[in-house]
Design brief:
Helix 1 links the parallel strand 1 and strand 2. This protein has a single domain, classed as Rossmann fold. Strands 3-2-1-4-5 form a five-stranded parallel beta sheet, with helices on both faces. It has 146 residues and is α/β, with parallel strands linked by helices. The protein has five helices and five strands. The two termini are 28 Å apart.
Length: 146
Amino acid sequence: MRIVCLSAEAADICARLGAWGEVVAVSAFASQAGLEARPVIGGFSTTDCEHVAELRPDLVLCFSDVQAEIAGQLIRLGCNVLATNQRTLEEIAGAIRLIGGVIGRASEAEALVMEFREGLAALHHHSSPANGEVAPPGHARRHRRH
């Protein structure tokens, strides 16, 4: 499968699902640190849709209503487009599952959702008052994936 990721979120999900080898181009905002570099196809709200279509992707992943016009142009150019619009933590988990299912990595998506939820639980635990310790306002300890 040839995948174009027009959002940082989609690129990150594909990488975490083990599908980076199928990604053929990404948005300028996608972190490619530690990954084999992919061509940058545009920004978040600006993309050369004809160039995307020339890559002959099997799937283009978009995010949010900001990319609605881009999605429409790509569809008119014959591309298959999946646009997600997650706004809550639960919707993020749903988007991971949806993308994983569409690219044939449903079991990897379930594992990633579990990891995501465990990370959230750890954040909640570390930012909750414990033993009389109170985190300063606006402070949250970050959970990093090693």
